[in-house]
Amino acid sequence: MKLTPTDFGGAMAVDSYGPGFFRVGRTVYHGPVLVTATSAGAWGGLDDRTALMALAGQVDVLFLGMGADVAHAPADLIAALHKAGIAVEPMASPTAARSYNVTLSEGRRVACALLPL
Question: Is the pTM of this model over 0.90?
């Protein structure tokens, strides 16, 4: 079977991840990371709501990686993001990274905020 590489059209994709790190656009980030089509950087985790709220008007969906396992995100955070027009999908970080990449490859306005494994 011939594999065809995914073309992200220059957008930032999550290249890989492992215990405590994420590799995005060939740069390794230790700890939580916030990734959009145009940027990636360290994120302060679930307490850093300012960075997530700044996505309003830029993204339609935020894949929220909760670490190694699926966990509930704070209800007030989800409500605030919904009020700002951002749909939030909490899931395990590996699933969030893959979902972000697939949705990004479709040209959609997405971001992912990932807690480390």
Answer: yes
